[in-house]
Design goal:
With 511 residues, this protein is an alpha/beta fold. The protein folds into 2 domains: 277 residues, Zn peptidases (Aminopeptidase, 3-Layer(aba) Sandwich); 190 residues, Glucose Oxidase, domain 1 (3-Layer(bba) Sandwich), CATH 3.50.30.30. The protein has 13 helices and 20 strands. It starts with a helix and ends in a 14-residue tail after the last helix. Bound molecules: zinc ion. The site of zinc ion has 6 residues, from α8.
Protein backbone atom coordinates (compact mmCIF):
# COMPACT_ATOMS: atom_id res chain seq x y z
CA UNK A 1 0.00 0.00 0.00
CA UNK A 2 2.75 2.37 0.99
CA UNK A 3 4.77 1.53 -2.09
CA UNK A 4 1.74 1.99 -4.25
CA UNK A 5 1.09 5.39 -2.66
CA UNK A 6 4.68 6.51 -3.27
CA UNK A 7 4.48 5.43 -6.89
CA UNK A 8 1.25 7.33 -7.32
CA UNK A 9 2.57 10.53 -5.78
CA UNK A 10 5.73 10.29 -7.89
CA UNK A 11 3.54 10.12 -10.95
CA UNK A 12 1.49 13.06 -9.77
CA UNK A 13 4.65 15.04 -9.19
CA UNK A 14 6.15 14.13 -12.55
CA UNK A 15 3.32 15.30 -14.71
CA UNK A 16 0.35 17.54 -14.34
CA UNK A 17 -2.57 17.09 -16.67
CA UNK A 18 -4.37 20.33 -17.38
CA UNK A 19 -7.11 19.90 -19.93
CA UNK A 20 -5.61 17.67 -22.60
CA UNK A 21 -2.00 18.75 -22.22
CA UNK A 22 0.40 16.87 -20.03
CA UNK A 23 3.12 19.05 -18.62
CA UNK A 24 6.23 17.20 -17.46
CA UNK A 25 6.86 19.35 -14.43
CA UNK A 26 10.11 17.59 -13.54
CA UNK A 27 11.52 18.38 -16.98
CA UNK A 28 10.34 22.00 -16.81
CA UNK A 29 11.95 22.34 -13.38
CA UNK A 30 15.24 21.01 -14.78
CA UNK A 31 15.04 23.51 -17.65
CA UNK A 32 14.29 26.39 -15.28
CA UNK A 33 17.12 25.42 -12.96
CA UNK A 34 19.66 25.15 -15.77
CA UNK A 35 18.55 28.39 -17.46
CA UNK A 36 18.23 30.54 -14.37
CA UNK A 37 21.10 29.16 -12.27
CA UNK A 38 23.74 28.04 -14.80
CA UNK A 39 23.01 30.49 -17.61
CA UNK A 40 25.54 30.92 -20.40
CA UNK A 41 23.82 33.82 -22.16
CA UNK A 42 26.59 36.31 -21.35
CA UNK A 43 29.26 33.98 -22.69
CA UNK A 44 27.31 33.33 -25.90
CA UNK A 45 26.59 37.07 -26.22
CA UNK A 46 30.28 37.93 -25.96
CA UNK A 47 31.18 35.41 -28.68
CA UNK A 48 28.39 36.38 -31.09
CA UNK A 49 28.48 40.13 -30.56
CA UNK A 50 31.76 41.52 -29.24
CA UNK A 51 34.02 38.87 -30.72
CA UNK A 52 32.33 38.31 -34.10
CA UNK A 53 31.54 41.99 -34.73
CA UNK A 54 28.93 43.35 -37.17
CA UNK A 55 27.34 40.44 -39.06
CA UNK A 56 26.18 41.84 -42.37
CA UNK A 57 25.26 38.88 -44.59
CA UNK A 58 28.29 37.45 -46.39
CA UNK A 59 30.71 39.63 -44.45
CA UNK A 60 33.66 38.31 -42.45
CA UNK A 61 31.78 39.11 -39.24
CA UNK A 62 28.89 36.91 -40.33
CA UNK A 63 31.36 34.15 -41.11
CA UNK A 64 33.07 34.48 -37.71
CA UNK A 65 29.70 34.25 -35.95
CA UNK A 66 28.56 31.30 -38.07
CA UNK A 67 31.83 29.43 -37.45
CA UNK A 68 31.58 30.07 -33.72
CA UNK A 69 27.96 28.88 -33.67
CA UNK A 70 28.75 25.65 -35.55
CA UNK A 71 31.72 24.84 -33.27
CA UNK A 72 29.79 25.72 -30.11
CA UNK A 73 26.72 23.70 -31.06
CA UNK A 74 28.94 20.69 -31.82
CA UNK A 75 30.68 21.12 -28.45
CA UNK A 76 27.31 20.93 -26.73
CA UNK A 77 26.73 17.63 -28.49
CA UNK A 78 24.33 18.69 -31.21
CA UNK A 79 24.58 16.69 -34.43
CA UNK A 80 24.67 17.66 -38.12
CA UNK A 81 25.97 21.14 -37.19
CA UNK A 82 26.92 22.93 -40.39
CA UNK A 83 26.74 26.05 -42.51
CA UNK A 84 24.10 25.08 -45.03
CA UNK A 85 24.01 27.03 -48.31
CA UNK A 86 20.55 28.27 -49.23
CA UNK A 87 21.22 29.80 -52.64
CA UNK A 88 22.78 32.89 -54.13
CA UNK A 89 22.74 35.98 -51.93
CA UNK A 90 25.22 38.31 -53.57
CA UNK A 91 28.34 40.28 -52.84
CA UNK A 92 30.08 40.27 -49.50
CA UNK A 93 31.27 43.67 -48.30
CA UNK A 94 33.49 45.15 -45.58
CA UNK A 95 34.25 48.60 -44.23
CA UNK A 96 38.02 49.07 -43.91
CA UNK A 97 38.08 52.75 -43.03
CA UNK A 98 35.52 55.44 -42.40
CA UNK A 99 36.05 59.05 -41.38
CA UNK A 100 34.04 62.27 -41.55
CA UNK A 101 34.66 65.67 -39.98
CA UNK A 102 33.66 69.26 -40.63
CA UNK A 103 36.76 71.41 -41.14
CA UNK A 104 35.11 74.81 -41.81
CA UNK A 105 33.81 77.07 -40.26
CA UNK A 106 35.44 75.12 -37.38
CA UNK A 107 36.65 71.57 -36.80
CA UNK A 108 34.14 69.02 -35.56
CA UNK A 109 34.21 65.23 -35.89
CA UNK A 110 30.91 63.76 -37.13
CA UNK A 111 29.31 60.38 -36.42
CA UNK A 112 28.71 58.64 -39.73
CA UNK A 113 28.61 55.12 -41.15
CA UNK A 114 29.22 54.13 -44.78
CA UNK A 115 25.99 53.03 -46.41
CA UNK A 116 25.99 49.24 -46.80
CA UNK A 117 27.67 48.10 -50.04
CA UNK A 118 28.89 51.61 -50.79
CA UNK A 119 31.95 52.18 -52.95
CA UNK A 120 35.25 53.60 -51.58
CA UNK A 121 35.85 57.31 -51.88
CA UNK A 122 38.70 58.38 -54.10
CA UNK A 123 41.13 58.55 -51.17
CA UNK A 124 40.73 61.40 -48.70
CA UNK A 125 38.27 63.98 -49.96
CA UNK A 126 38.03 67.61 -48.87
CA UNK A 127 35.66 70.24 -50.10
CA UNK A 128 32.62 72.46 -49.79
CA UNK A 129 29.24 70.89 -49.04
CA UNK A 130 26.27 71.55 -51.32
CA UNK A 131 22.76 70.71 -50.11
CA UNK A 132 20.37 69.26 -52.64
CA UNK A 133 16.69 70.03 -52.48
CA UNK A 134 15.05 67.32 -54.55
CA UNK A 135 11.37 66.57 -54.13
CA UNK A 136 10.72 65.29 -57.64
CA UNK A 137 12.54 64.53 -60.87
CA UNK A 138 11.86 68.07 -62.15
CA UNK A 139 14.21 69.38 -59.45
CA UNK A 140 17.19 67.68 -61.15
CA UNK A 141 17.29 70.43 -63.83
CA UNK A 142 18.53 73.12 -61.47
CA UNK A 143 21.64 71.05 -60.64
CA UNK A 144 22.48 69.87 -64.16
CA UNK A 145 26.14 70.52 -65.01
CA UNK A 146 26.87 72.13 -61.62
CA UNK A 147 27.85 69.21 -59.39
CA UNK A 148 31.07 67.87 -60.90
CA UNK A 149 33.54 66.97 -58.12
CA UNK A 150 31.24 68.17 -55.36
CA UNK A 151 30.26 66.76 -52.00
CA UNK A 152 26.51 66.82 -51.66
CA UNK A 153 24.34 66.52 -48.57
CA UNK A 154 20.73 65.45 -48.14
CA UNK A 155 18.55 66.27 -45.16
CA UNK A 156 16.95 63.43 -43.17
CA UNK A 157 13.75 62.43 -44.93
CA UNK A 158 11.85 61.63 -41.72
CA UNK A 159 12.01 61.62 -37.94
CA UNK A 160 12.62 64.54 -35.64
CA UNK A 161 15.41 65.44 -33.30
CA UNK A 162 13.35 67.15 -30.59
CA UNK A 163 14.10 66.54 -26.91
CA UNK A 164 13.02 63.10 -25.69
CA UNK A 165 10.32 63.44 -23.06
CA UNK A 166 9.41 59.74 -23.14
CA UNK A 167 11.86 57.08 -21.97
CA UNK A 168 13.61 55.24 -24.79
CA UNK A 169 13.18 51.91 -23.00
CA UNK A 170 9.67 50.67 -22.31
CA UNK A 171 7.88 47.53 -21.17
CA UNK A 172 4.33 46.72 -22.23
CA UNK A 173 1.68 47.86 -19.77
CA UNK A 174 -1.21 45.62 -18.79
CA UNK A 175 -3.56 47.81 -20.89
CA UNK A 176 -1.34 47.59 -23.97
CA UNK A 177 -1.23 43.82 -23.72
CA UNK A 178 -5.00 43.67 -23.22
CA UNK A 179 -5.47 45.65 -26.43
CA UNK A 180 -3.10 43.32 -28.24
CA UNK A 181 -5.25 40.35 -27.28
CA UNK A 182 -8.11 41.57 -29.47
CA UNK A 183 -8.16 40.34 -33.08
CA UNK A 184 -5.92 42.33 -35.36
CA UNK A 185 -6.72 45.93 -36.02
CA UNK A 186 -4.12 45.83 -38.80
CA UNK A 187 -2.44 48.67 -36.98
CA UNK A 188 1.05 47.85 -38.19
CA UNK A 189 0.14 47.24 -41.79
CA UNK A 190 0.91 50.00 -44.26
CA UNK A 191 -1.94 51.77 -46.01
CA UNK A 192 -2.03 51.68 -49.85
CA UNK A 193 -1.18 55.42 -49.80
CA UNK A 194 1.89 54.77 -47.65
CA UNK A 195 3.02 51.96 -49.95
CA UNK A 196 2.57 54.14 -53.05
CA UNK A 197 4.50 56.95 -51.37
CA UNK A 198 7.28 54.60 -50.31
CA UNK A 199 7.59 53.14 -53.83
CA UNK A 200 7.63 56.60 -55.39
CA UNK A 201 10.40 57.67 -53.02
CA UNK A 202 12.43 54.57 -53.89
CA UNK A 203 12.05 55.23 -57.63
CA UNK A 204 13.06 58.88 -57.12
CA UNK A 205 16.08 57.84 -55.03
CA UNK A 206 17.26 55.43 -57.73
CA UNK A 207 16.91 58.10 -60.41
CA UNK A 208 18.68 60.62 -58.21
CA UNK A 209 21.61 58.23 -57.65
CA UNK A 210 21.97 57.69 -61.40
CA UNK A 211 21.79 61.47 -61.99
CA UNK A 212 24.41 62.21 -59.33
CA UNK A 213 26.76 59.57 -60.75
CA UNK A 214 26.37 61.05 -64.25
CA UNK A 215 27.05 64.55 -62.90
CA UNK A 216 30.32 63.39 -61.28
CA UNK A 217 29.48 63.92 -57.58
CA UNK A 218 32.31 62.54 -55.38
CA UNK A 219 30.58 61.89 -52.06
CA UNK A 220 27.01 61.81 -50.69
CA UNK A 221 26.30 62.70 -47.05
CA UNK A 222 22.84 61.48 -46.17
CA UNK A 223 21.04 62.53 -43.00
CA UNK A 224 19.25 59.55 -41.46
CA UNK A 225 16.39 58.91 -39.11
CA UNK A 226 17.43 58.93 -35.43
CA UNK A 227 18.64 61.29 -32.73
CA UNK A 228 21.16 61.67 -29.88
CA UNK A 229 24.02 60.31 -31.97
CA UNK A 230 22.01 57.32 -33.12
CA UNK A 231 21.46 56.71 -36.81
CA UNK A 232 19.27 54.12 -38.49
CA UNK A 233 20.87 52.61 -41.57
CA UNK A 234 18.94 52.25 -44.81
CA UNK A 235 18.41 48.99 -46.70
CA UNK A 236 20.23 49.31 -50.02
CA UNK A 237 20.23 46.64 -52.74
CA UNK A 238 23.98 46.87 -53.44
CA UNK A 239 24.54 43.22 -52.51
CA UNK A 240 22.89 42.08 -55.76
CA UNK A 241 25.72 41.14 -58.08
CA UNK A 242 24.53 43.23 -61.04
CA UNK A 243 23.61 46.39 -59.12
CA UNK A 244 25.91 49.33 -59.88
CA UNK A 245 27.50 50.43 -56.60
CA UNK A 246 27.46 54.12 -57.51
CA UNK A 247 28.93 56.99 -55.55
CA UNK A 248 30.52 56.66 -52.14
CA UNK A 249 27.95 57.48 -49.48
CA UNK A 250 28.05 58.13 -45.75
CA UNK A 251 24.92 57.94 -43.62
CA UNK A 252 25.24 60.71 -41.05
CA UNK A 253 23.68 61.36 -37.63
CA UNK A 254 20.87 63.85 -38.38
CA UNK A 255 21.96 66.52 -35.90
CA UNK A 256 25.21 67.05 -37.83
CA UNK A 257 23.44 67.27 -41.17
CA UNK A 258 21.00 69.77 -39.68
CA UNK A 259 23.96 71.79 -38.34
CA UNK A 260 25.58 71.98 -41.79
CA UNK A 261 22.22 72.94 -43.29
CA UNK A 262 21.61 75.81 -40.84
CA UNK A 263 25.14 77.15 -41.43
CA UNK A 264 24.79 77.10 -45.22
CA UNK A 265 21.25 78.54 -45.11
CA UNK A 266 22.70 81.47 -43.19
CA UNK A 267 25.47 82.10 -45.68
CA UNK A 268 28.30 80.28 -43.87
CA UNK A 269 30.34 77.98 -46.10
CA UNK A 270 30.84 74.43 -44.78
CA UNK A 271 33.81 72.27 -45.67
CA UNK A 272 34.41 68.69 -44.71
CA UNK A 273 37.07 66.03 -45.00
CA UNK A 274 36.16 62.40 -45.38
CA UNK A 275 37.47 59.02 -46.38
CA UNK A 276 35.66 55.76 -47.04
CA UNK A 277 37.46 52.51 -47.80
CA UNK A 278 35.44 49.40 -48.51
CA UNK A 279 36.05 46.03 -50.15
CA UNK A 280 33.69 43.75 -51.99
CA UNK A 281 33.81 39.98 -52.06
CA UNK A 282 32.47 38.75 -55.37
CA UNK A 283 34.06 35.29 -55.23
CA UNK A 284 31.51 33.53 -53.07
CA UNK A 285 27.97 34.81 -53.61
CA UNK A 286 26.37 31.90 -51.76
CA UNK A 287 24.22 32.59 -48.68
CA UNK A 288 24.34 30.34 -45.60
CA UNK A 289 22.27 29.37 -42.56
CA UNK A 290 23.67 27.62 -39.48
CA UNK A 291 21.78 24.40 -38.77
CA UNK A 292 22.18 21.80 -35.97
CA UNK A 293 20.07 19.12 -34.31
CA UNK A 294 19.30 17.33 -31.09
CA UNK A 295 18.22 13.94 -32.42
CA UNK A 296 14.84 12.60 -31.32
CA UNK A 297 14.72 9.39 -29.28
CA UNK A 298 11.24 8.00 -29.94
CA UNK A 299 11.32 5.42 -32.74
CA UNK A 300 8.00 6.61 -34.14
CA UNK A 301 8.49 10.34 -33.68
CA UNK A 302 12.18 11.03 -34.23
CA UNK A 303 11.64 11.66 -37.96
CA UNK A 304 9.45 14.60 -36.94
CA UNK A 305 10.99 17.99 -36.19
CA UNK A 306 10.55 20.93 -33.88
CA UNK A 307 12.43 24.00 -35.09
CA UNK A 308 13.65 27.14 -33.37
CA UNK A 309 15.64 30.03 -34.76
CA UNK A 310 16.51 33.64 -35.29
CA UNK A 311 18.57 35.56 -37.81
CA UNK A 312 22.32 35.66 -37.38
CA UNK A 313 22.91 38.54 -39.80
CA UNK A 314 22.83 42.15 -38.64
CA UNK A 315 23.46 45.57 -40.12
CA UNK A 316 27.02 46.86 -40.10
CA UNK A 317 26.93 50.12 -38.08
CA UNK A 318 27.28 48.26 -34.77
CA UNK A 319 27.44 44.70 -33.47
CA UNK A 320 23.73 43.94 -33.86
CA UNK A 321 23.23 43.00 -30.21
CA UNK A 322 19.45 43.26 -30.18
CA UNK A 323 18.83 42.75 -33.91
CA UNK A 324 19.24 39.92 -33.81
CA UNK A 325 22.10 38.87 -31.59
CA UNK A 326 19.47 38.51 -28.86
CA UNK A 327 17.43 35.98 -30.85
CA UNK A 328 20.47 33.85 -31.64
CA UNK A 329 21.81 34.00 -28.06
CA UNK A 330 18.43 32.88 -26.74
CA UNK A 331 18.01 30.06 -29.26
CA UNK A 332 21.56 28.78 -28.72
CA UNK A 333 21.07 28.96 -24.95
CA UNK A 334 17.75 27.09 -25.28
CA UNK A 335 19.39 24.11 -27.02
CA UNK A 336 22.31 24.24 -24.57
CA UNK A 337 19.83 24.05 -21.68
CA UNK A 338 18.12 21.04 -23.27
CA UNK A 339 21.46 19.29 -23.72
CA UNK A 340 22.70 20.15 -20.21
CA UNK A 341 19.54 18.81 -18.54
CA UNK A 342 20.01 15.46 -20.27
CA UNK A 343 16.36 15.42 -21.30
CA UNK A 344 15.67 13.08 -24.19
CA UNK A 345 13.24 14.69 -26.61
CA UNK A 346 10.96 12.33 -28.53
CA UNK A 347 11.03 14.41 -31.71
CA UNK A 348 14.18 15.84 -33.30
CA UNK A 349 14.90 19.45 -32.35
CA UNK A 350 16.54 21.58 -35.04
CA UNK A 351 18.03 25.03 -34.49
CA UNK A 352 18.50 27.43 -37.42
CA UNK A 353 20.43 30.71 -37.38
CA UNK A 354 19.47 32.45 -40.58
CA UNK A 355 21.41 34.61 -43.03
CA UNK A 356 20.06 37.32 -45.33
CA UNK A 357 17.10 38.31 -43.12
CA UNK A 358 17.78 42.03 -43.22
CA UNK A 359 17.76 42.20 -47.01
CA UNK A 360 14.51 40.28 -47.50
CA UNK A 361 14.14 37.24 -45.16
CA UNK A 362 16.16 35.27 -47.74
CA UNK A 363 17.86 32.61 -45.58
CA UNK A 364 14.75 31.22 -43.91
CA UNK A 365 12.46 31.55 -46.94
CA UNK A 366 14.93 29.68 -49.12
CA UNK A 367 15.49 27.05 -46.43
CA UNK A 368 11.74 26.48 -46.34
CA UNK A 369 11.66 26.30 -50.13
CA UNK A 370 14.60 23.87 -50.25
CA UNK A 371 13.24 21.56 -47.54
CA UNK A 372 9.51 21.94 -47.14
CA UNK A 373 7.80 23.50 -50.14
CA UNK A 374 7.24 26.42 -52.46
CA UNK A 375 4.82 29.06 -51.19
CA UNK A 376 4.23 30.41 -54.71
CA UNK A 377 3.00 27.14 -56.23
CA UNK A 378 2.13 25.47 -52.91
CA UNK A 379 3.95 22.38 -54.11
CA UNK A 380 4.95 20.71 -50.88
CA UNK A 381 7.78 18.29 -50.12
CA UNK A 382 7.26 15.22 -47.92
CA UNK A 383 9.18 16.85 -45.06
CA UNK A 384 6.57 19.63 -44.75
CA UNK A 385 4.34 17.10 -42.94
CA UNK A 386 7.11 16.32 -40.46
CA UNK A 387 7.57 19.74 -38.88
CA UNK A 388 5.45 20.30 -35.81
CA UNK A 389 6.33 23.96 -35.24
CA UNK A 390 8.89 26.71 -35.76
CA UNK A 391 9.60 29.21 -32.96
CA UNK A 392 11.31 32.51 -33.74
CA UNK A 393 12.77 35.42 -31.75
CA UNK A 394 13.42 38.74 -33.51
CA UNK A 395 11.98 41.56 -31.45
CA UNK A 396 15.08 42.51 -29.53
CA UNK A 397 16.21 41.92 -25.99
CA UNK A 398 12.87 42.26 -24.17
CA UNK A 399 11.46 39.39 -22.14
CA UNK A 400 8.59 37.25 -23.36
CA UNK A 401 5.12 38.54 -22.47
CA UNK A 402 3.17 36.09 -24.62
CA UNK A 403 2.89 34.83 -28.18
CA UNK A 404 1.30 35.67 -31.54
CA UNK A 405 -0.84 32.75 -32.73
CA UNK A 406 -0.51 33.87 -36.34
CA UNK A 407 -4.19 33.08 -36.84
CA UNK A 408 -3.85 29.49 -35.55
CA UNK A 409 -6.57 29.48 -32.89
CA UNK A 410 -6.36 25.73 -32.22
CA UNK A 411 -2.97 26.06 -30.49
CA UNK A 412 -4.28 28.66 -28.03
CA UNK A 413 -5.37 26.23 -25.26
CA UNK A 414 -2.09 24.34 -25.62
CA UNK A 415 0.11 27.42 -25.31
CA UNK A 416 -2.08 28.71 -22.50
CA UNK A 417 -1.33 25.60 -20.48
CA UNK A 418 2.37 25.66 -21.31
CA UNK A 419 2.61 29.26 -20.14
CA UNK A 420 1.23 28.29 -16.69
CA UNK A 421 4.72 26.99 -15.82
CA UNK A 422 5.96 30.60 -16.07
CA UNK A 423 3.38 32.62 -14.16
CA UNK A 424 6.16 33.79 -11.84
CA UNK A 425 8.37 35.19 -14.64
CA UNK A 426 5.76 36.69 -16.99
CA UNK A 427 3.36 39.49 -16.06
CA UNK A 428 0.02 39.42 -17.88
CA UNK A 429 0.80 36.52 -20.22
CA UNK A 430 -0.87 37.42 -23.51
CA UNK A 431 -1.85 35.05 -26.29
CA UNK A 432 -3.12 36.90 -29.31
CA UNK A 433 -4.68 35.51 -32.46
CA UNK A 434 -2.93 38.30 -34.35
CA UNK A 435 -0.22 37.90 -36.94
CA UNK A 436 3.11 39.56 -36.63
CA UNK A 437 5.32 40.01 -39.65
CA UNK A 438 8.70 41.11 -40.86
CA UNK A 439 10.79 38.11 -39.93
CA UNK A 440 11.72 34.45 -40.31
CA UNK A 441 8.58 32.63 -39.14
CA UNK A 442 6.72 33.96 -42.21
CA UNK A 443 8.20 31.44 -44.66
CA UNK A 444 7.00 28.55 -42.47
CA UNK A 445 3.56 30.08 -41.98
CA UNK A 446 3.22 30.59 -45.74
CA UNK A 447 3.35 26.85 -46.43
CA UNK A 448 1.20 25.70 -43.54
CA UNK A 449 3.86 24.91 -40.92
CA UNK A 450 2.87 26.51 -37.61
CA UNK A 451 5.41 29.34 -37.19
CA UNK A 452 5.40 31.58 -34.15
CA UNK A 453 7.02 34.74 -32.93
CA UNK A 454 6.77 35.67 -29.23
CA UNK A 455 5.45 38.96 -27.82
CA UNK A 456 8.44 40.68 -26.21
CA UNK A 457 8.82 43.87 -24.22
CA UNK A 458 10.02 46.52 -26.68
CA UNK A 459 12.74 47.98 -24.41
CA UNK A 460 14.69 50.33 -26.79
CA UNK A 461 14.21 48.28 -29.95
CA UNK A 462 12.37 50.85 -32.05
CA UNK A 463 13.72 53.98 -30.39
CA UNK A 464 17.43 53.23 -30.27
CA UNK A 465 18.70 49.81 -31.23
CA UNK A 466 17.51 47.92 -34.30
CA UNK A 467 19.47 48.83 -37.44
CA UNK A 468 21.43 51.52 -35.60
CA UNK A 469 25.06 52.39 -34.94
CA UNK A 470 24.41 51.88 -31.21
CA UNK A 471 23.08 48.31 -31.22
CA UNK A 472 25.80 47.11 -28.87
CA UNK A 473 26.26 44.63 -26.00
CA UNK A 474 25.14 47.26 -23.46
CA UNK A 475 21.65 47.23 -24.98
CA UNK A 476 21.07 43.61 -23.89
CA UNK A 477 18.97 42.97 -20.78
CA UNK A 478 20.63 39.79 -19.56
CA UNK A 479 17.82 38.70 -17.20
CA UNK A 480 15.34 39.00 -20.05
CA UNK A 481 17.51 36.80 -22.28
CA UNK A 482 17.58 34.16 -19.51
CA UNK A 483 13.79 34.25 -19.21
CA UNK A 484 13.36 33.90 -22.97
CA UNK A 485 15.77 30.97 -23.23
CA UNK A 486 14.02 29.07 -20.43
CA UNK A 487 10.55 29.61 -21.90
CA UNK A 488 11.63 28.68 -25.41
CA UNK A 489 13.50 25.57 -24.23
CA UNK A 490 10.26 24.52 -22.48
CA UNK A 491 8.02 25.26 -25.47
CA UNK A 492 10.36 23.37 -27.77
CA UNK A 493 10.58 20.45 -25.34
CA UNK A 494 6.80 20.35 -24.84
CA UNK A 495 6.33 20.38 -28.62
CA UNK A 496 8.82 17.54 -28.97
CA UNK A 497 7.04 15.44 -26.32
CA UNK A 498 3.37 15.76 -27.35
CA UNK A 499 1.77 12.66 -28.79
CA UNK A 500 0.49 14.72 -31.71
CA UNK A 501 2.11 17.50 -33.70
CA UNK A 502 0.70 20.97 -33.07
CA UNK A 503 -2.60 21.65 -34.86
CA UNK A 504 -2.25 23.29 -38.27
CA UNK A 505 -4.32 25.81 -40.14
CA UNK A 506 -5.83 24.98 -43.54
CA UNK A 507 -3.30 25.42 -46.35
CA UNK A 508 -3.33 28.70 -48.21
CA UNK A 509 -3.98 28.69 -51.94
CA UNK A 510 -1.18 28.98 -54.48
CA UNK A 511 -0.48 32.57 -55.56
ZN1 LIG B 1 15.86 41.40 -37.07
Amino acid sequence: MKLHFLFLSALLFASICIGQETIDTVAIEKIRNEGFNNSQVERIAFQLIDKSGPRLTNSKGFERAADYAVTQLMEWGLTNANKEPWGEFGRGWEVNKSYLAMTKPYYMPFIAVPKAWTESSNGEITGKVVFLDVKSEEDFVKYKGKLKGSIIALLPSRGNQDPTFKADAIRFTEEELKKMEAPSSNQRRYTPEQITKYRARRVLNNKLNTFLAEEGVTLILKGTNGKHGTLFTSSPRGFLKDTPVGISELEVVPEYVNLMYRLIENGVDVEIEAEVKTTFNTENLQGYNVIAEIPGTDENLKSEIVMLGGHLDSWHGATGATDNGAGCIVMMEAVRILQATGLKPRRTIRIALWGGEEQGIFGSRNYVKNHFGDSETMELKAEQEKVSAYYNIDNGTGRIRGIYLQGNDAVKPIFKQWFTSFDDVIDNTTITIRDTGGTDHLGFDAIGIPGFQFIQDPIEYRSRTHHTNMDTYERLVIDDLKQMAVIIASFVYNTAQRDEKLPREALKKAK
